[in-house]
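Please review this one.

:::
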Amino acid sequence: MGEELMQIGQVSTRIGLSLRTIRHWDEVGLVTPSARSAGGFRLYTETDVERLAFIKRLKPLDFSLDQIKELLATVDGLAQQEELSSERLEDLLGRLAMFRAATDSRLDALRHQVDSLESLSRDLKNLDTSTRSYNASQTP
Protein backbone atom coordinates (compact mmCIF):
# COMPACT_ATOMS: atom_id res chain seq x y z
CA MET A 1 0.00 0.00 0.00
CA GLY A 2 1.37 3.43 -0.96
CA GLU A 3 2.00 6.33 1.34
CA GLU A 4 -0.87 8.81 1.75
CA LEU A 5 -0.40 11.95 -0.31
CA MET A 6 -1.49 15.33 0.98
CA GLN A 7 -2.31 18.44 -0.97
CA ILE A 8 -0.45 21.64 -0.23
CA GLY A 9 -3.42 23.14 1.64
CA GLN A 10 -3.50 20.21 4.05
CA VAL A 11 0.23 20.49 4.62
CA SER A 12 -0.03 24.25 5.13
CA THR A 13 -2.71 23.88 7.78
CA ARG A 14 -0.98 20.99 9.48
CA ILE A 15 2.42 22.62 9.99
CA GLY A 16 1.47 26.28 10.01
CA LEU A 17 3.21 27.50 6.88
CA SER A 18 1.71 29.66 4.18
CA LEU A 19 1.11 28.22 0.73
CA ARG A 20 3.46 30.87 -0.60
CA THR A 21 6.28 29.75 1.70
CA ILE A 22 5.86 26.09 0.77
CA ARG A 23 5.84 26.95 -2.92
CA HIS A 24 8.90 29.15 -2.51
CA TRP A 25 10.82 26.43 -0.71
CA ASP A 26 9.93 24.10 -3.58
CA GLU A 27 11.12 26.65 -6.15
CA VAL A 28 14.48 27.14 -4.41
CA GLY A 29 14.98 23.38 -4.03
CA LEU A 30 14.60 22.92 -0.28
CA VAL A 31 11.74 20.45 -0.54
CA THR A 32 10.27 18.89 -3.63
CA PRO A 33 6.80 17.37 -3.47
CA SER A 34 6.90 13.62 -3.93
CA ALA A 35 4.22 13.69 -6.61
CA ARG A 36 1.94 15.85 -8.69
CA SER A 37 -1.74 15.30 -9.29
CA ALA A 38 -3.12 14.89 -12.80
CA GLY A 39 -3.91 18.61 -12.63
CA GLY A 40 -0.33 19.48 -11.64
CA PHE A 41 -1.02 20.14 -7.95
CA ARG A 42 1.78 19.43 -5.48
CA LEU A 43 1.31 16.28 -3.42
CA TYR A 44 3.33 15.64 -0.27
CA THR A 45 4.17 12.53 1.74
CA GLU A 46 4.69 12.34 5.49
CA THR A 47 8.44 12.47 4.84
CA ASP A 48 7.98 15.70 2.86
CA VAL A 49 5.96 17.18 5.73
CA GLU A 50 8.69 16.25 8.22
CA ARG A 51 11.25 17.97 5.98
CA LEU A 52 9.10 21.11 5.80
CA ALA A 53 8.72 21.10 9.59
CA PHE A 54 12.51 20.75 9.96
CA ILE A 55 13.08 23.73 7.65
CA LYS A 56 10.46 25.72 9.56
CA ARG A 57 12.42 25.09 12.79
CA LEU A 58 15.62 26.38 11.16
CA LYS A 59 14.26 29.66 9.74
CA PRO A 60 13.89 31.58 13.03
CA LEU A 61 17.41 30.48 14.00
CA ASP A 62 18.96 32.78 11.39
CA PHE A 63 19.93 30.07 8.94
CA SER A 64 19.89 31.40 5.38
CA LEU A 65 18.14 29.43 2.65
CA ASP A 66 21.56 28.52 1.22
CA GLN A 67 22.72 27.24 4.62
CA ILE A 68 19.51 25.25 5.01
CA LYS A 69 19.98 23.80 1.53
CA GLU A 70 23.55 22.77 2.40
CA LEU A 71 22.47 21.24 5.71
CA LEU A 72 19.67 19.30 4.00
CA ALA A 73 22.09 18.05 1.34
CA THR A 74 24.41 16.90 4.13
CA VAL A 75 21.61 15.13 5.99
CA ASP A 76 20.35 13.55 2.74
CA GLY A 77 23.86 12.40 1.89
CA LEU A 78 24.37 10.84 5.30
CA ALA A 79 21.05 9.00 4.95
CA GLN A 80 22.64 7.08 2.05
CA GLN A 81 25.58 6.02 4.19
CA GLU A 82 25.86 2.51 2.73
CA GLU A 83 26.39 3.89 -0.78
CA LEU A 84 29.06 6.46 0.13
CA SER A 85 32.76 6.23 -0.40
CA SER A 86 34.80 6.73 2.75
CA GLU A 87 36.06 10.05 1.32
CA ARG A 88 32.51 11.31 0.70
CA LEU A 89 31.39 10.13 4.13
CA GLU A 90 34.26 12.04 5.79
CA ASP A 91 33.35 15.15 3.78
CA LEU A 92 29.72 14.95 4.90
CA LEU A 93 30.69 14.32 8.50
CA GLY A 94 32.98 17.35 8.33
CA ARG A 95 30.11 19.48 7.05
CA LEU A 96 27.88 18.14 9.79
CA ALA A 97 30.53 19.04 12.37
CA MET A 98 30.65 22.60 11.00
CA PHE A 99 26.87 22.93 11.35
CA ARG A 100 27.04 21.48 14.84
CA ALA A 101 29.76 23.97 15.83
CA ALA A 102 27.75 26.88 14.39
CA THR A 103 24.65 25.67 16.22
CA ASP A 104 26.54 25.32 19.50
CA SER A 105 27.99 28.81 19.06
CA ARG A 106 24.52 30.27 18.48
CA LEU A 107 23.22 28.39 21.49
CA ASP A 108 25.99 29.82 23.68
CA ALA A 109 25.20 33.34 22.43
CA LEU A 110 21.50 32.85 23.18
CA ARG A 111 22.28 31.53 26.65
CA HIS A 112 24.36 34.66 27.28
CA GLN A 113 21.45 36.83 26.10
CA VAL A 114 19.03 34.97 28.38
CA ASP A 115 21.41 35.39 31.34
CA SER A 116 21.67 39.11 30.60
CA LEU A 117 17.91 39.48 30.32
CA GLU A 118 17.36 37.61 33.57
CA SER A 119 19.86 39.87 35.31
CA LEU A 120 18.20 42.99 33.90
CA SER A 121 14.79 41.69 34.96
CA ARG A 122 16.05 41.13 38.53
CA ASP A 123 17.58 44.62 38.62
CA LEU A 124 14.33 46.19 37.41
CA LYS A 125 12.30 44.19 39.90
CA ASN A 126 14.62 45.30 42.73
CA LEU A 127 14.34 48.91 41.59
CA ASP A 128 10.56 48.63 41.49
CA THR A 129 10.46 47.06 44.95
CA SER A 130 12.83 49.60 46.50
CA THR A 131 10.98 52.51 44.89
CA ARG A 132 7.63 51.25 46.17
CA SER A 133 9.11 50.71 49.67
CA TYR A 134 10.59 54.21 49.70
CA ASN A 135 7.33 55.80 48.55
CA ALA A 136 5.36 53.84 51.13
CA SER A 137 7.65 55.01 53.93
CA GLN A 138 7.26 58.65 52.82
CA THR A 139 3.47 58.59 52.86
CA PRO A 140 2.04 59.80 56.21
